Structure formats: C-alpha cells, structure tokens
Amino acid sequence: MDRLKAVFVIVLLLGILLPSASPVVVVSEPMPPIIIVGNVPRGFVVAPYEMFKVYFYIADDFGVTTGKGRIEAYYRVNGGDWKQAYVTKAAAGENWSIYQSIIHRFYGESQDFYVFYREATLPGAPPGSRVEFKIAVTDAEGHVSYSPVYSYYVANPDGPRILIVDPSVEAMAFEKSLESLMAQFNASRSFYHYNLSDFEAVAEPLRALKPWMLSDHHWEELAKYYNIRIVSPDELVNALQSFQPDAVILSNLWLPDWGLSGEEISALEDYLKGTHAGLIVTAGTLFDATNSGHLGGINGSAGLTGLLGLDSLTIANSLKGSFNLSNASVMLPFVNTGYSLVLSKEGPFSGGTIDVTAYSTVGWQCVLSPVQFGIARRSVSRSIAENSRMLELVESIKNLTGVQFNFSLSASMELPNLVASMEVTDDGVAVNHDGEDVELSVKRGLLERIRLLQALRGRVPILLAHTEDYSGGILATEGDYRAVYSSLELEAGGSDELSVLKELVDWVVNYKPVEMPEVIVLANDIDWGIRGESLASQLEALGLPVKRVTAGDFKAYEDSKVVIILGGPDAYDGVGGYVREVLTTEEQDAVRKGERGTFVKTDVWANGQVVIVLAGRDRWGTSGKIKAYMNGVDDSYLRILATFSASVS
C-alpha cells in the first residue's frame, strides 16, 4: 500500500511539473474541470496590509493549458472592480500541509486525468477592507468552472476582540457560484473520484433557498475598529478559549445546520458570566421552526432566550404540543414593513430615527406592553398578506426540515399571543386557547424568571430601539454581562444600520456593573425566624444588599425599589395590613384557602417598584412558599432585577 501511495504522489507531481500533452485516454463523456481552493485565511481575517497567498488545485479530463484552456484568479476590495491576480505554478513543498490536505481527498487506484497545482498572491489592504477572490478555469473543450467567491476581512489588531459566529460568510461564497459547484460535485463523484463531501454539506442546504434569503454581511465596517474573527457554530467553544473575545455576535443563525447545541449555549453562558464579555444576537437566530433548541425548554434545558431575558419565548415554544400547534412557529423571519427605526435615549443611543432596509424577525413582541404588541400584530399581519415571497419561505422550510410550516398561524403571532395572556401560578403557567385550558409545569428557576418578567412586561428587557410599528426592535438586558437581541439583521443593512450595530458593540464591550437595589424584607419575627433569615442570606450571597424591617418601621421604606413581604393577609404584627394593600380581595382569599401564595406586583407604593409577596395560609405555608421561591432565585433571576434597576435609575 505504501508503494501505491508513493507512485500516486509521483504521478501527481509529474502532472504539476510536466507540460500538458494530448490525453492518452478516451473519455466517453467530457467533464468540466474541478477547482479545489486549498486555503482561506483563518477566521476569514488577515492583518493590515498583509498579502495573502491562495493555493488551488485543478483536475480536468483533457487539460486546461491547451486550446481554449486557461486558469484565472480575480480579486476585488470593498466591492470595487474585479482585478486579475497573477497565477503561477505552485511547488508541493512550498506549503506541504496545504498540498497534503488537497491530495488526500482522491480515492481509487487510477486517475485518468490531468492535475494542476497553482497559486496566486493577493495584495494587502488597510483595516476595514473586505477582499473577495475567485478562481475561473476554462478547459480545452471550453467548459468553464468557478470556485466559491470567498471573502475575508482586514481587521484592526489593536481593537477589542469580537468573535462573530457567522456561517453565512462561507455560505455566500458558495451561493455565488452554486450552479458551477453543483456540476463540479457531480463530476468529482462520477469521474474524478475526489471527496468533496464537506463542501457539498455547505452547498446542499442552499439549494432549498431563494437568493433573497441570504445576504452579504458587511463585517468590514466592524473590522475598521475591532479585532474580529469569524467562525462557524461548531467552532464557537474552542474559539471562546483561544481568542478570548470581549464580545460575541451570533449572526442570523437560522438554518438548521447553523444551530447551537445546549452544551454550546451553556459554555457560552459560562464564558459571558466569567469574563463580563458582551453578547449580541441578531434576527433569525431565534427562528424556532429550524432551530427550536435556541428557545430552550421548560425542563431547564439551555436556550439563547435565557441569556437575553426572553424566557417568555421558551414558554411559547413549549405550548406547541399542548395545543396541536406544532407546525406553527413562535418567531418568523424575513419581515420588513417599511417603517423607520426609532432610537431611544437609553443604552448606547441618544435618540433619532433612521431608515432600515434589513429584514426583521417577529414574535418577540409579546414582551412589550399590550398596546405595543397589538400595534405590531396588526402591522405584521397587513404587511405579510401583501408579500408573495412568504410562500417561498414555506417551501424552503419544508425542504430543509421535512415539516409543512404553518405560515398563516405563525404570521398571526398566535403563540406569542398565548404567552402574552398567560397566568403564572405558584407552580406553573396556565394558558387558555380556544376554550381549552392547559397548565404547564415549569422548572422552578425558569418559573420565577417568568413570574418576574410577566410583572415587568414592557420594562424588561429594555427596548433600546424599535420601528415605528414595533415590527422590529433592539432589546437589552444587563447584569454580569450586557446582552442585546436585535430582531433586525443589521449586519446586512446600509451605513446607518451598520452604525447602529457598531454602537451596540461598543456598549456591550464597555461593561459597567449595575448597582443592585437594596432588597427590603418585611416580616414579623415568626416568619423571619422560620425561613426569612435563610432567604436573606441567599440573596446576599448572590450580591444583593438586604435589610429586614418590621411593619412598624416599613413606612420609611415604602418607596424602595424591591420589597419582599413574608406572610399573608392575616399575618401578625401589622404585616397582614400591608399584604392587603398589595393583593386584591380575590388573591387574599386564594391565600387563605391555600390555592395561591406567590405574587409579584409593580408600582404599589412608588413608581419603578417591585413588590414580591410570599404567603401561606399559616406560618408553615409561608415557609413553604419562601423555600420554593429560594429554589428559583439564581444569577439569571438577578439579571432581570439588574435590568429593571438600570431601566428605572
């Protein structure tokens, strides 16, 4: 076998070093040449003014250096005119690892065709440049083949490190030469016996798409200021450790092959919490029809929604099976209603309005106020009814997943609407749909976050920007890291949208700890002694300052941002009187009957206030409610409180 390998390498080298000759075999069906690009820059990035040498390999049945044959390499910078790069013969030993990575893909004992190993050097460029290159080969018979149209970026090595998870950079390279590449894949299997399966894996999903479903992402605009690196989803975890980014961007990860696993999401969360790095998630990354796992699960499985303060979408995703809505989606991408984007005066922005051309993903609007949500639903429904492209999306989803996607139900935002009207009970969430009642049992940590978020609806997450009809928006949370969800694919937009993206990157990179509010615990001596002290210790361990007060002292603390009351409407020593000010008559009766005991209210004694009541029908019932609440309070819960504190400060 070793002798066969040696003979094979010698034959390949002779094909490189010797001039072309007339074919010595008879080919019954002429084949197009195949082009194998051996290298692209690591992370699709090079240093300022660094030249890049690309190596590529060509195989053809009749040759490419005689008759009509020619080999050409082209490049362009920042979308300018294509320029021809000088192509020369490459020596195998010049970069042996690249050469080996190319030739090891051949299989079979005989190869009756010509091979050519070439190189081209592309010039350097300043930071903020995007360089595209492609190879065009015409064989002796006149067949023309094209390589993918690869892009790479010239980054600023002195800027903050930004890790961009964006498989569309490679996908767009294939999309621009897809017809030629599919012909080369067929020829590689039937004649050249060359393994291009990994390239086919990139190209195959693209056949299910329409061209408008993929867009160029203009990372060159960030490369001017930042040290960027672009990776695929399966490279994320290793890149976190090797690159140590100051911020991570998950860019429109909507295709099924672009999804992140629960383990990868957990690793990302651990990294963000440990380093205070920022997170930006864009557009269709939360599209559950193709990547349902990104919305997490009610059993506590990790989702991106938990990192973004969008846990309500996790509940919406879980309702599909309960109401036979499995073919509907919570989120719907590729929506553009034509309205301008209004920037707030919070976070990185200082007000203003810009026109947007980028698509938005809708469904997240259930976290807005009821009025804002209603405006968004009406606008999206009207816009989509006039958009014939959405039928193409339905077809593409079916081709990608095998599922008949219910577009109409998804466009109506039925699942988000169910979440907007749900009731959070002591042990789950209760939802009614078309007269059918369902109560979901939810893991305690998620349940307490949902309870708090439902009370703070319209305030958390912070709405940093929104289109005039709320069909597009930018949401933010704070805490141990800053996180942003942009429903708009800003990276595919024009200069104004890219400027907004840069401001968001600056904001998440420049992390500042949020001053956590003091938690006032109102409790009598009995409830404080049974479990109140334990609750206070847990909150303090999580970083919250805590002060216990009695009913006699509470008047001075009524305007506190966060108040926790231990006990029911009949609690001793004056505590019950304050509980009766917080709860409705029906809620008080539910406590006395043991039916309810955990409540979150807002703006009871002051604007910008959260009041949490933990109450049982007796002292031991109150102790049980406190224990259940403690089981659900963690650092993710604190992120919601931190965001609320920042929004009202």
Helix content: 25-40%
Q: How would you sum up the global shape?
A: elongated
Radius of gyration: 30 Å
Stretches where pLDDT is under 50 for at least 5 consecutive residues are 1-27
Strand line-up of the largest beta sheet: 12-11-13-14-24-23-22-16-17
Largest sheet geometry: 9 strands, mixed
The number of helical segments is 21
Instruction: Give the overall pLDDT as a whole number.
Output: 93
Report the span from N to C terminus: 74 Å
Say how many strands there are.
29
Structural class by sheet pairing and helices: alpha/beta
Report the β-strand fraction as a percent range.
15-25%
What's the short story on this structure?
The protein is an alpha/beta fold and 649 residues long. Helices cover 35% and strands 22% of the residues.
Overall description:
It contains 21 helices and 29 strands. It is α/β, with parallel strands linked by helices. The strands form six sheets. Strands 12-11-13-14-24-23-22-16-17 form a nine-stranded mixed sheet, with helices on both faces. Helix 17 links the parallel strand 25 and strand 26. Helix 10 packs across helix 14. The N terminus is likely disordered.
